[in-house]
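In the previous chapter we treated chains in isolation. Here, by contrast, the input contains two separate entities that must be folded as one system, with a combined length of 283 residues.
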Amino acid sequence: MGFRMKIDGSGPVNLSEKCITNVEFDSEIPKDSNARATDNGVGLKITGKMLFSLGAETEDSTLNLAKWSLVPSDSADCYRNVQIDVVAAGQIVRQITLPNAFVLEYEEEQDDENGVGTFMLHVKQKKDLTDKTAIEGGFGQ
Amino acid sequence: MSLIVKIEGQESFEVSKECVQKVKYRTNIPADSNARTKDVGCELEISGKILVATDGDPFDSTRQLALWSVVPAENAAAYRHVTVEIVEAGIVERKYDFPRAFVIAYKENYGNESGIGTFHIVIKQKKDKLDLVSIEGGYVGA
C-alpha cells in the first residue's frame, strides 16, 4: 500500500510512496454530543521520511511543508489544496481532497541514529467549508 | 548525519557535533483552531550527551547551554541567535535560523550507569518575531 500527496500553492509539494509512511484521516466530531452535531471538521495527519537528494539534484519538497507551517494568517496562501491518494494493487482505495486546508501541527525530527529525519504534518479543512471535502475511491490509477 | 548547533550573541559558542544526538523542530499552533490563526510560534528541541574533556580542554560547550538557561529576563543576553544545520552526504538538508531565541526548558540528567550525562534544551523564537525565522535546505554545503 502506498500513499501520494499533492499540495498546490506557492510552494507545491509532491510526495510519493517512497517518502510517506502513514496517513490518518479523522472526522473530528465532538465526543460529548447527545445527537448528531454540526460542529464537525475533518483533518489529515501525514507522517513520512525527510529524504534528501544526493548531490542536491532534485528539490526536497518537505522543505515546502515547513515553510507552509509558518505562513501568517493574513496571507491567502495559508489555505492550500491537499490531495492524498491511497494506492493498493493498482487501484485508488481512497482519494481524499481537502480544498481549503490549513496547518494545525508540523514537526520535524532528526537524530544521529536513523540517517533520515521524519516529519509529521497535521492539516485541517477550514471548518465552515467541511462540506467541500471529497472522499472518493474504488477506481483505477 | 551531523547536527551542528551554533549559538551567537553576547557569548557565542558551538555545541560540538559529538554531543548533539537529536534535533526536533515544531510549529506550535493552537489545536482547537477552526481556521488559520495568528497565534503561531515555533521551537527547537535539542538533546545530546554531556562529554567530559579528558585532555584538559576547559571549554565544555554544554555548560554554556546551562548558563544560558539561567540568564535573567532583564538581561539582553537572554535572547540569542540560534542556527541548526543538518548535514547529510555533503547536503545541507535543513538549516533552521532563529534570530531571537530564548530558553523555555533546560534539563540535565546524570546516572551511575551510562558514564556520561545528557542534556535536553527547548528554545523558542520570541513570538512576535516569528517572521524572522527561516527554514532552508536542499543545497550543497560543508
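Strands of chain A lie at 2-7, 13-15, 20-28, 41-50, 80-88, 91-111, 117-125, 134-136, 139-140. Chain A has a mean pLDDT of 92. Compare these points with the single-chain example from earlier in the chapter.
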